[in-house]
């Protein structure tokens, strides 16, 4: 944001503003089509705000939600009554636990401790 404030829109990548305009128009048209269409059709039109969540929080959250949905599906197949009672509490705990990991992760990053993972991308011949 600081670079954008100092250098202006010329600091953005090429065609970035055109893409922003296009996605803004798509969001408005999707919301209008959802609101103006009949209920039985409008419920299948995706909400742009819901589609924006992975861009705001990161891809890891989408993976967490996918795995959580699979667990909920399996839990409902095994014991639907118990799952209906416990799923909201378990999901809240998992989301909070995922957020709580940020604190130790930040401390490790400040101490310049890196995880023992080595990943490299090399060109193939």
From TrEMBL:
<dbReference type="InterPro" id="IPR045035">
    <property type="entry name" value="YSL-like"/>
</dbReference>
<dbReference type="GO" id="GO:0048316">
    <property type="term" value="P:seed development"/>
</dbReference>
<keyword id="KW-0812">Transmembrane</keyword>
<feature type="transmembrane region" description="Helical">
    <location>
        <begin position="12"/>
        <end position="32"/>
    </location>
</feature>
<feature type="transmembrane region" description="Helical">
    <location>
        <begin position="44"/>
        <end position="63"/>
    </location>
</feature>
<dbReference type="GO" id="GO:0035673">
    <property type="term" value="F:oligopeptide transmembrane transporter activity"/>
</dbReference>
<dbReference type="GO" id="GO:0005886">
    <property type="term" value="C:plasma membrane"/>
</dbReference>
<keyword id="KW-0813">Transport</keyword>
<protein>
    <submittedName>
        <fullName>OLIGOPEPTIDE TRANSPORTER YGL114W-RELATED</fullName>
    </submittedName>
</protein>
<keyword id="KW-1133">Transmembrane helix</keyword>
<comment type="similarity">
    <text>Belongs to the YSL (TC 2.A.67.2) family.</text>
</comment>
<dbReference type="GO" id="GO:0010039">
    <property type="term" value="P:response to iron ion"/>
</dbReference>
<keyword id="KW-0472">Membrane</keyword>
<feature type="transmembrane region" description="Helical">
    <location>
        <begin position="83"/>
        <end position="103"/>
    </location>
</feature>
<dbReference type="InterPro" id="IPR004813">
    <property type="entry name" value="OPT"/>
</dbReference>
<dbReference type="GO" id="GO:0051980">
    <property type="term" value="F:iron-nicotianamine transmembrane transporter activity"/>
</dbReference>
<dbReference type="Pfam" id="PF03169">
    <property type="entry name" value="OPT"/>
</dbReference>
